[in-house]
Design brief:
Elements (H helix, E strand, L loop, with lengths): L12 H13 L3 H15 L3 H11 L10 E4 L9 H16 L5 E6 L5 H14 L3 E4 L6 H10 L4 E5 L8 E8 L9 H13 L13 E2 L3 H11 L12 E4 L6 H10 L6 E2 L25 H10 L3 E5 L6 E7 L2 E7 L2 H14 L6 E5 L5 H8 L3 E5 L3 H4 L5 E6 L3 E3 L10 H17 L4 H12 L1 E10 L3 H13 L4 E2 L2 E8 L13 E5 L3 E7 L5 E10 L6 H19 L5
Parallel strand pairs: 2-3, 2-4, 3-6, 7-8, 7-9, 12-13, 12-14
Antiparallel strand pairs: 1-5, 4-5, 9-10, 10-11, 14-15, 16-21, 17-18, 18-19, 19-20, 20-21
């Protein structure tokens, strides 16, 4: 995540000196030329150029449990070849201190992803490690699979997931195939800082690295295909979009290997394109992102829409509205999370833990309890979910699902999509649908309505102030609903690691969690309202839950101002 820009009061001269030193080392002709042009404009007192230098050189991209993610361009606060080589060298030092080994490297189809992957391989090879580079742009879950499958000490995935086109990122996995957690992030970050204090030329490079063949992808496809029953129905009619990302080929290969009918492509979005030309924002959660897929589904009278985000670790699902086949709606991440949890049990999960992030719906807990299974909640992020002992299935509300933790210890939008299609096919054979199951779950366990609001800030100090104010003066009631208690997640009492967040428990089974985003300059509030039908029809009970939710959202919004 990018840090705050340095103060502009000092003028542009200090940043010009830093930028000139950077340009002298930059191995990338494109970013060096861009930077020299910005320096010339700043010398001419162009305000935009001065602000750009201050932002690019006033701080450094922070390496954390999410790795690196930021805007492409020159400077330490951007994603570029210098920052990536320094990050790779810092990671290499960390791995060498622990015995070295092989490092799997994957990359998506974003701008410079292949370049950053190659530079990383050269740095790892120069450090005496064994770099194994995937053969072409492939989904993040294929890289997560490769780390475990090949017995690697670590893995690197060059991706910015569903960020805008101008961004890229650097995600790190350790040998068990999970993303890094503290204290590894701080230890790697310290190594990177040390490397960044030395000349770039001090990083040894080598061409002694290996480009893998197609075997790893073949093995991943074969493994995912085993997740569905050999004789389960296969009749759901599916429209699919990878949103200009790298999921298309792998998704279609998995369907074919599992002997499902081919999906209907959204042709305009099928081929990888780093500009993401048909969407305003390449995140299936964003309004409008899957409009083309829904249009195609209406034309084809399909049963469901499946969308992967650009690196295919997330899965979105849309379905026709019951009684109105011309109307479609996207299921929430919590709805899909509950459906997959139910389906895992239906298809034979009789042991293990069903897990969710703490900001996700507690419906999964109720489903697990009804079947005598254990459930657990973790901090937000699959780096935490994937590490739970005995994990059978895990999800988070942001469209992330882990249905095969033995082989992919991360969210996987391809394998999740296959199980959703299997579920929809089996239900169709019985004359039922996904929304019928959601109705059944609401009747049995209560309506678990969820929502969130978030605010993007320019000054991270605003988030600190908001959290400090809420800790100092917690509300006793919200929208007329009594607050039963506030849990400060920096001092958790339920076994979770400490994190910056607050959890409010309200009368009537409602819950609000406030936390800063871990990857963006945002503060977020997550809501859950539980409403038991108690003999009332579902629509009446859902309307009641919606009214309670809206009242809470309206009352909480001023907290973020």
């Amino acid at each position: 995540m990018a840090g705050d820009a340095g103060p502009l009061a000092r003028g542009s001269a200090p940043f010009i000196e830093l930028a000139l030193a950077w340009a002298n080392e930059d191995p990338d002709d494109h970013t060096r030329t861009e930077l020299l042009g910005t320096i010339d404009a700043a010398r001419a007192h162009d305000p935009a150029a001065e602000a750009e230098l201050a932002d690019a050189f006033g701080s450094r991209l922070e390496f954390g449990t999410a790795g690196l993610r930021g805007r492409l361009g020159p400077g330490p606060n951007r994603m570029n070849r210098v920052v990536v080589m320094q990050a790779a060298a810092g990671l290499a030092e960390y791995l060498r201190e622990r015995g070295g080994g092989a490092v799997a490297i994957g990359f998506d189809a974003r701008h410079n992803s292949d370049v950053f992957a190659r530079d990383s391989a050269m740095v790892f090879a120069g450090a005496g490690l064994t770099p194994l580079v995937l053969p072409r742009p492939l989904p993040t879950p294929v890289l997560a699979y490769a780390v475990r499958h090949l017995g690697c000490a670590a893995g690197v995935m060059v991706t910015a997931s569903h960020n805008p086109p101008q961004d890229n990122g650097y995600k790190v996995y350790l040998g068990e195939g999970s993303q890094i957690v503290p204290p590894a992030d701080a230890e790697i970050s310290a190594n990177i800082s040390s490397v960044a204090g030395r000349p770039l030329s001090s990083i040894l490079l080598s061409d002694d690295w290996t480009t893998l063949g197609g075997d790893v992808l073949d093995d991943y496809v074969a493994q995912v295909a085993t997740l569905v029953g050999r004789h389960s129905p296969r009749q759901a009619r599916v429209v699919y979009t990878p949103l200009h990302g790298v999921g298309g080929e792998t998704f279609e290969r998995v369907l074919k290997r599992a002997e499902f009918p081919a999906s209907i492509r959204v042709d305009a979005q099928f081929e990888p394109d780093p500009e993401f030309p048909t969407v305003a924002f390449p995140n299936p959660e964003e309004p409008g992102a899957i409009d083309l897929a829904i249009q195609e589904a209406k034309r084809a009278t399909a049963d469901l829409v499946i969308a992967n985000d650009p690196d295919a670790d997330r899965c979105a699902v849309a379905v026709p509205v019951q009684g109105s086949p011309d109307e479609w709606r996207m299921l929430t991440g919590d709805e899909v999370g509950s459906l997959l949890g139910w389906w895992m049990i239906e298809r034979g999960a009789t042991s293990g833990v069903l897990a969710r992030s703490l900001v996700s719906s507690s419906m999964l807990d109720a489903i697990a309890a009804a079947h005598g299974l254990a459930s657990a909640q973790t901090l937000t992020g699959f780096k935490w979910i994937a590490r739970l002992p005995g994990l059978e299935y895990g999800y988070e509300e942001a469209l992330g699902y882990c249905v095969d933790p033995l082989h992919v210890r991360d969210k996987d939008g391809i394998s999740a999509a296959l199980l959703v299609i299997e579920m929809a096919s089996a239900l169709k054979a019985d004359g039922r649908s996904l929304t019928d199951i959601l109705d059944d779950l609401d009747r049995e366990h209560g309506i678990h309505a969820t929502s969130q609001i978030s605010v993007r800030v320019n000054d991270l100090g605003r988030i600190t102030d908001i959290m400090r104010r809420l800790r100092a003066n917690p509300p006793s009631s919200i929208a007329g609903i009594g607050v039963l208690g506030m849990d400060d997640l920096e001092k958790p009492t339920d076994g979770l690691p400490p994190t910056d967040g607050l959890r409010f428990s309200l009368e009537g089974g409602a819950r609000i969690i406030v936390r800063p985003s871990g990857t963006e300059p945002k503060i977020k509030c997550y809501f859950e309202v539980i409403e038991y039908p108690n003999g009332a029809d579902l629509e009446t009970a859902r309307a009641s839950a919606a009214r309670r939710m809206e009242a809470l959202r309206h009352a909480v919004a001023p907290w973020l101002e």
